[in-house]
Design goal:
531 residues; alpha/beta; 3 domains; five-stranded antiparallel sheet; 22 helices; 49% helix
Amino acid sequence: MNVQHIPLSETAFYGRLMMDYMEGNPQLRPFYQHLPSMQAFPEVISERSRKSLNRELLAEVLLEQHAAWLGEYPTLKANIDALKKENTFTVTTGHQLCLATGPLYFLYKIITTINLCRRLKEAWPANEYVPVYWMASEDHDAEEINHLYVNGRKLEWKTSQRGAVGRFSTSDIQLVLEELKELTGNEAHAPDWLKILSDAYAANRSLSEATRDLVLSLFAGQGLVVLDADQPALKRLFMPVIREELSLQSAHDIVTETSARLGHFYKTQVTPRELNLFYLEGDLRERIVRDEQGHYRVLNTDLNFTRELMLEVAEKFPERFSPNVVLRPLYQESVLPNLAYVGGPGELAYWLQLKDLFDHYHIPYPMLVPRNNALIIASKPFEKFLGQGFEPRDVLRPYQDLAGQWLQQQEDIGPDIEKVRLALQEVYQPLMDRMNRLDPTLTASIQAELQKALNGLETLSKKGTAALKRKHEVVLNQLRTLTDKVNPEEQPQERILNCSAYMARYGHDFIAALLKDLHPLDFRMAVFVEP
């Protein structure tokens, strides 16, 4: 696939907050540690090196979680072993356990992470850099992960399971895979892709296990490590934060104050709770709240704890405490030797609310790196689009804007209509003045007649526009089809479409093309033009 690039500033994909962050606006300086650039990494590495963590435990957990893959992929084994050493660091991205990888940008996040590690190794080869995908296995919003869009259809995994999604069984997912086969089965690489999915979602596996296998089937050869942090040993490393959150609820006041300062300039993304932990056990993941007596209740249950009992449970069973969106980044940075977090605009926006919280706990704040953005488009319609006088960046504009511009360029009747409108007003004005002198009560009648004429002119204008649309129907239909591909469901393609159509068409060459042409810290949208 050929690649063209469009500056993100011309895409309207990123709001003012993230554009100001990428451009280094001084008013954002208190809310992050380092701007996203290669030049900042020596200092990031130095800061991270000064913070010790339990590398042996981290490697032990990862070796256990990747046991089935280590023999086939030596790079994976080498990366996990390297994490035991003080000169090894990670670059991390996180995401929900979306069905069949979910929207395309899930792949873009991981590829940005892998390629950033490659660039770091080239720049500072004395260290090792391990790409990590942190699975959001404790998330409980099944509605956000249970569907995918392929070839214009929405496929949905209907399950009644509840609680942390990583613990869901995938035994009832086969119907979705059968639908997917109907949609992609005629493509050359469909059997291979469907086998990857079928193997990953084998009956009675957890969604965490299935997602790990699916992602590793695509990226194990690149040394990507997939971490499921729903794990007792790792939660024990997070105990200082869990303990303080239960006892003092420090996060609420700290993040609220930071958010207020950030909110003077931008809209903030998250609102901290008084207590930012969930209770996690079996198929239960519910918020913990404090009542007026200072007891701890688990919402939508009968569970009720005194302060002493809640702290005792936390000491014995830290795995029962799940951080919410405010504390999850702290958990991640507590267990990984992380240099940078790769995320989308919404994610990084809420990370900017957390800098003071990181400082409070003396946890190094990573560089926030915007993920790569991409668009995939077929060559023939794109070439026709450019041949019609549009620029590459115009492909991201709404259909109505493009259609209006095209029609005006062909036969713009607007100026003629405007001339007639002004002429009508000029014709009626002397008569209105004369009648007003004769009898002021006649003015309203003259104005009504003028309005009738203007209304008739507007009707003619609409008929003329409709005739133009009929005359240029072929081109307008081409524009409609193209914009529907670029913005399906009126959202950017990367946020809606699943990779299945491309994996079935190109196989692993699709991943190879993305790895080759998505460059980290390149703040442009990559437009992949299919042959």
